[in-house]
Amino acid sequence: MPPAWPGPLPEASPPSDMAIHQLPTGTYETRAAFAFTGGSFGDKRPFAATAVLVTHPQGDLLIDAGFGSDVAAHVHAQPWYARAPYQAGSTASEQLEASSYDRARLRGVLITHSHWDHVSGLDQLEVPIWTNAGELRYAAEARDGKVFRSVSAGHEIREYEFASAPYLGFPLSHDVHGDGSVVVALAGGHTTGSVIVFVTLPTGKRYAFIGDVAWQIEGVRKPAERPRLMRMLADVNAGQVRADLLRVASLAGLLQVVPAHDVGAYDGIPALTERASAER
Ligand SMILES: [Zn+2]
Q1: Half-sphere exposure of 24 (CA within 13 A, CB side)
Q2: I need a surface site. Which of 81, 109, 127, 165 has the fewest CB within 10 A?
Q3: Residue 52 alpha carbon to ligand 1 centre in Å
């Protein structure tokens, strides 16, 4: 276990009306033995495909898009070893609709990376895709970029650039709103332009949406890398993932770390559809 981040935490001045909500769109089934070293084969894990809505007076963003209406085709596009039984619920678009969300507020989908299980829902979200040059290069060439290439067609690409602004041990970052409330840090080991999205709320509560730096929370808590075979199949630079995983592990006591596919890691983040019923 790496030593805890000695601090201080980066400054942030999130506006008082900023908030986050989760939009779970479904899960697919895998086993702990494939998710992290030391996981058991008998331990079945539902992998979350969840979008997170970050509302902000300068405009809202979704972090990842979850499953879309074409999820069956998107699963089918995977190599056989990556196809898994899945359960699809309402898509992010359907949940926005059901909660009477004002679509004019949505500035885009900020993707943690371009793999199918993070971008499938772009097929129903006609908003810009926020990503970086490294990820665009990866998505254009990689076999695993196939679904992205199809769902991103017709979308405006909003390409952001990283500054040499170290953030919690990550050397390159991009402050989306300029107030420290949403900061994207490059963690380019899973894919070339994979990112972690750090969110700070006006309450002081902080989150790290780490994408696939780890697939389940045990990966961060132990910490434990993906098993060797999965590192070979899934990561462009497993050494970089390891370094980033240790950085994330050092932060685990200071903020809520959310591996994209860990259902329980989203606990405490209200569902968007709950907001709708509370206002009714
Ligand atoms: Zn993933």
Answers
A1: 19
A2: 81
A3: 14
pLDDT over 60 at 280, yes or no: no
Q: How far apart are CA 204 and CA 215, in angstroms?
A: 26
- Choose among 124, 115, 244, 110: nearest CA to 181: 110
Give me ligand 1 centre to Cα 16, in Å. 32
Torsion sign across C-alpha atoms 245, 248, 252, 257: negative
Ligand 1 center to 8 CA (angstroms): 31
Residue 5 in tokens: 């981040």
Q: Tell me the C-alpha distance between 245 and 77, whole Å.
A: 29
Coil, helix or strand for 158?
Answer: strand
**pLDDT tens across 55-106, in order?**
999 999 999 999 999 999 999 998 887 789 999 999 999 999 999 999 999 9
Structural tokens at position 225: 């890398």
The pLDDT of residue 275 is above 80? no
Between the CA of 196 and the centroid of ligand 1 the distance, in Å, is: 13
Å from CA of 260 to ligand 1 middle: 7
Q: Considering only CA atoms, which of 174, 180, 175, 194 is closest in space to residue 244?
A: 194
